[in-house]
Design goal:
Elements (H helix, E strand, L loop, with lengths): L16 H7 L1 H11 L23 H18 L9 E5 L5 H10 L2 E6 L2 H14 L5 E5 L17 E5 L8 H11 L7 E9 L3 H4 L1 H11 L7 H10 L3 E7 L1 H17 L1 H6 L4 H19 L3 E9 L1
Parallel strand pairs: 1-2, 1-4, 2-3, 4-5
Antiparallel strand pairs: 5-7, 6-7
Helix pairs in contact: 3-4, 8-12, 10-12
Length: 303
């Protein structure tokens, strides 16, 4: 049974740029108002195959559709999600996926996440929905998962959505997944990540440099990188669903909503510089996809 042990806030202000970004009050309001406050990842849209999309494409519903698609990916790979399934969500954000898995399948989900602001909101949602016995929340980084969050080989599934891009050591993430996933051949890894295409840095060096500077990173992962890293540790590639068209639709929709609700965000006390930063970020993600520099989709690996 899950234990909802509190993730204690740091005694001093974090110097980690990723934690500072997500703990920022303006950023938190941006995600809450525009993304719906449950999820922080790209969505799957019914009209993404066309450059023009329907005004009814809903960001919140599209985000839930990604979680549903990942769940279906696990079923297809042979996992029977149920009350005995233990899942570790790396970079869980507000915990929307964890509650979906707990609510729909009865899974026990452990959320690991760096942002204390998001963790507190996650725990509040769990209390509201009566899911504290199914979803637990821990503070920490996915390159070094704390012992309190789970024992070696203790998880049936390791899950993540659009979080690994923030890491400066993705090889160590794969090492931690290898340590924490069950060893009997039945364990599965399912995740999405925002990745660079094969020749992105050669084709568009300035655009990619701006993207990395905004994220405080020196690199992005690639599909080939993940295949190689998991293969090296004895995993099989169980498939990849290419969703980069949906990725572009998602960030285009976010940009539209940001323009439409700009005054609302400012009225909520969001600093104009935060609004401008996000406006530029949305446009650059779309531009990067249109120039063939970004990949996004669902990976699945197994023993």
């Amino acid at each position: 049974m899950a234990s909802n042990s509190p993730s204690k806030p740091p005694a001093t202000e974090s110097t980690d740029p990723t934690q500072q970004y997500y703990d920022d009050a303006g950023t938190d309001k941006f995600y809450t108002l525009l993304w719906g406050g449950q999820d922080i990842h790209a969505g799957i849209y019914p009209s993404s195959s066309s450059p023009s999309h329907s005004p009814t494409d809903d960001i919140t519903l599209a985000s839930i559709a990604t979680v549903a698609k990942m769940s279906d990916t696990l079923f297809t790979s042979g996992v029977q999600l149920g009350s005995t399934t233990r899942i570790l969500d790396l970079g869980a954000g507000y915990g929307g996926a964890a509650r979906y898995l707990a609510r729909n399948y009865g899974c026990e989900v452990v959320c690991l996440n760096l942002s204390e602001v998001q963790n507190e909101r996650n725990k509040a949602f769990n209390r509201q929905e009566g899911l504290e016995d199914r979803v637990s929340v821990y503070g920490g980084v996915f390159e070094d998962v704390p012992a309190a969050a789970g024992e070696d080989g203790g998880f049936d599934v390791i899950w993540s959505q659009d979080s690994f891009l923030h890491s400066r050591n993705r090889s160590q993430i794969v090492a931690e997944i290898d340590r924490l996933l069950r060893k009997d051949g039945e364990g599965r890894v399912v995740f999405t990540d925002i990745m660079a295409s094969k020749d992105a840095f050669e084709q568009e060096p300035e655009l990619m440099r701006h993207m990395l500077e905004r994220l405080h990173l020196s690199s992005l992962g690639t599909r080939d990188f993940y295949i190689s890293e998991f293969k090296e540790r004895g995993f099989k590639d169980l498939g990849y669903w290419d969703g980069k068209d949906h990725f572009a639709t998602h960030y285009r929709r976010l940009g539209e909503e940001l323009d439409r609700r700009k005054e609302e965000l400012l009225g909520e006390g969001v600093d104009p510089s935060v609004v401008e930063r996000h406006t530029g970020g949305m446009k650059r993600w779309v531009e990067a996809k249109e120039k063939g520099c970004v990949d996004w989709g669902i990976h699945c690996f197994g023993r």
